[in-house]
Amino acid sequence: MVNDHSQRPMLTLLPPAPRICTTGVIFGVSTTGRDSMHGSQMASPDNPATVSRSRSRILFATSGGGLAVALVILFGVGRWLVMEDPLVKARAIVVLSGAMPLRAMEAAKLYRQGYAPEIWLTHSTEPGATLEEMGILFAGEDHYSALVLIHEGVPPEAIHTLKPPIVNTADEIKVIAPALAPGKDDTVILVTTKAHTRRVRLLWRRLAPGQGRAIVRAASGDPFDPRHWWRNTRDALEVVREILGLLNAWAGLPLHPAQ
Q1: Range with the lowest mean pLDDT among 74-78, 149-153, 226-230?
Q2: What ranges in the chain are assigned the alpha helix state H?
């Protein structure tokens, strides 16, 4: 009899196949530590990519902050230029040359309100000197300012023109300050236009220290818009001129009028 067991196929037991671990263990080697090392290198502050990104953020923040400050200064410079002193009674009201008839009209209003018994005018050399060379008669801006004052109710005997002739605001300060006689009221009201007020005050403090008190006032009829000065060329040019004039005054007036 043949043994039935000899006819059965032999089964070979194989070892179980290795399981693939999803936690990072392959062939008994863990990748977790290697990935951690790689991540720590990427996040290191010494990594060139990290340093570059940090510098870019700092540069962007600095540029944005600088732009914001520049815009605030740009849009606020018009209001900064305009300043006025409180009105008090004075020895005289002075009409600074330029912007005729606005300054003369403001001076006449202050005179009628009783702030001073007389009005002083300065005599500008231009354009009279040039026109005289051409044989053309020009009475001078002070002449027409006097006519405006008389028209606005100021008696002729209250109007006086200071000598010598002037070229710019600094010259006017040098003429006005000595006209304040010692022992009398040494306060004057200087009437100008809005954007010019800050420079007038600065020049008085620089050129006439201890020679009297100046009350700086702006012509109320001046159309200069300090809040929106960039909207028209007149106001924009006035702002540029005043900024340059202030820089010259702060530097000690190294720039002089052309002869």
Answers
A1: 74-78
A2: 32-43, 48-81, 102-112, 128-133, 141-151, 169-179, 197-207, 233-250
CA distance 212 to 30: 90
Q: Choose the weakest-confidence range: 26-30, 97-101, 229-233.
A: 26-30
Which of 187, 198, 213, 208 lies closest to 245, judged by CA?
Answer: 198
Which DSSP state fits 126?
A: T
In tens, the pLDDT along 16-48 reads: 555 544 444 444 444 454 554 444 455 555 666
The residues, ordered by sequence, that sit 6+ positions from 200 with a Cβ below 8 Å of its Cβ are 96, 169, 173, 190, 192, 214, 216
Residue 52: count other Cβ atoms within 10 Å of its Cβ. Answer: 10
Both structure tokens of 117: 């018994």
141: Cβ contacts below 8 Å, ≥ 6 apart? 97, 98, 100, 123, 124
